[in-house]
Protein: AraC-like DNA-binding protein
Amino acid sequence: MRANEYRFFIKYLASYLVILLIPITVLTLVVNNVFVNKLQDEVISGNLNSLDKVRYLMDDQLKWIDDMTHQLLTEDNSLTQYRISDHWGYKAWGITRELKRFQRLSPFIHEIWLYYKDENAVFTSNGIYSIPVLAKQIYTFDDLSETQLVAHLQDLQSPAVLPTKKDEISGDNYVRMFVPLFPTKNQSEGTLVYLIEEEAVHRLMSAYHTAAGSAWMFDQTNQLVTGMTSANGPSEESVARLITQSPLEDYQQVMMDGSQYYMFSMQSEQSGWKYVTLLPVNEVMARVSQAQEWYIYGVIALALLGGAAIYIGMRMNYKPIYQLRRDSIQVLANRARNRNELDTVRDALNHLAHHNKELDERVKNRALAARSHLFLSLLKGEYEETEDMLEYGQEIGFPIALANHKVRIMIVQLPAHSDTKRAPSIEAMCRLFPDTCSVFGIEHMEPGKYVVMMARVEGGDSETEVCLQAFRDTLSQTLQAPVTVGVGSEVVISDIPKSYLEAQTAIGYRFVQGVNRVIDYERIPLHSCPQVEYPHSEMAGLQSAIREGDTNKIQGHLALIVTFIKEIQPPLIVARGLCFEMIRLINGVWRELGLQEEHGPERYPNIFALERLETIDEFENLIHTISSDLCSAFENQQVLGTKEAALDARSIESIMDYIQAHADRCEFTLQGMAEHFGVALPNLGQFFKDRTGQTLLEYTTSLRMEKAKVLLTSTSLQLKAVAEEVGYNNVSSFIRRFKQLTGVTPGEYRSIRLESDSSLSNEGDIMQL
Structure:
């Protein structure tokens, strides 16, 4: 590569290295002032929070002791009934039981003593003892002889806490709290004593205590209650002396026993007790120093690794750019080759963007053509499955959600003498509708006429009428000419042809009502006349006869329909709708039964041709043509019907075996199966349904779906491969049919079964364990 070709590489490499060094430098300068201080603040905050938790837990226990003492001071407390008893055994049993109950309410308290001055014994939560026995045989403390115990029990005038001492008998350390009982303000009635194991207090403090630090607890008189310290920690005497001589602050640095400590302290507002923790300064700062050291190492490593990564990344990333320049030169063969990489690629992108814009315009035009074709198919009723049309509409972005709305068809008629060149395009015309309307339109074959589909408008017929009138007024003002709109009734998707015929009838009624208005089919006098009874029974009989392949019945029902038209003489809208329904019925039944038409569906008129039929004779000729075609089709099938008498109970097994052997082949058809057995498909289908209760199509589909379920759960084949394995060339048709029968798509079914199998496997493993 020439040096000129490295120009951008060197430029961007240097800029990236500068970008990397700037934040590293800034961080290095401010880390000691921000990060270190922040770490110290975190240490202080964390220690104070932990200390506050210890204070809260200890206050909670002291409050419980205080509450229990107040309960025993009430005039009618739980001990009264036992104390006034003359029966000594009952009294001793009752008081001991109550004290035991109180003691069990707080695991923090090891034992409770109760001494009344008018009694010769001390009641405890574990029994009743005389003072000598209690002081010498039950508990023995070196700071609480029998004489001292008597003094505390009889002469104590205020609560007192004795520091932690070891019981010589049990070997355990206890904190002893003496609380005088003053039912009146002048004279003490007795004394309550609470024995608290030092271990219980240490458990509260253990959440804070660290290996190198120490924790201490002082009562309201600054007397040391208990403490936890390491082997190298400060002595009790030094801590006690510091507390009594120095005013306490939340956080301060102190010198003790030749070492520097961070001292954290907190005093309870409830009890007046003080909680103090000491941490060696060198331990706290060790974390800060370690953080600084690791930070320096990290900065150096980051600079080295970052620089190397940038260089390697630039080298790797620059190769595609250089290759892209070479490819761009090939795209722009007529451009100069001495342009730099970015300019060359920019020119290539502009060139491609121009071509993409042209391609996008072509795609949009094709999408518009696809939507127009869908609209024509809906108008003509030329589709097999409604769901196929709904899915196709979503794929091509049809502006009306056909699955969620009823629609109506309208025909917009411009005056014959108007200049069609001045008329707006159908897209611009649709934009004249209010925003609350969802519409789509196409140009009619006749000049000056347009067909528009409009979705249901929220607000009902009144709001629809307002939208239509607003559209007509706007279009009329735009063209400076009268505009007439014929509107059909609101229908579901399958009845769109009917709404079109009604709109055509309404637009034709302009010769009576006048132009430059909206004409609603449902409001014209023709529609208001008594309704002609529609020949539903004849249409149903015709459908049944076609399925049976009975030419005599077919001709009979068609003759009844002709008689209906001649004798009743219904309006043209009814006759046209009748013929359209008959044509759609015949085409649908033939598709369902697999019969092949010799001339195809184009032999019969579509919805636009039907609107040009204006006499009864034309309708009669059309019906006779349909009758002739049906009879010819079924006569051609009769050659295969000579073997129908051979169908018996064993034939049904042969048919089922044949379907099971061939149903998963894409080339399998019901018509081909009928030819294999030498029986007309309608008769074969009726025979199979009479014997099994299922149609041939239902049985075939069920076999395919069962095989699909097995493939979905036992293999990892893609859906397209699964569809082909069960006889579907079109994966969309397979997915739709699978969902119709199971309620879920094949992908969802596979996921559900895999999750279910996984759960069962896990349960099996658990049962084995």
About this structure: The chain is about 60% helix and 10% strand. The radius of gyration is 50 Å. The chain has a mean pLDDT of 77.
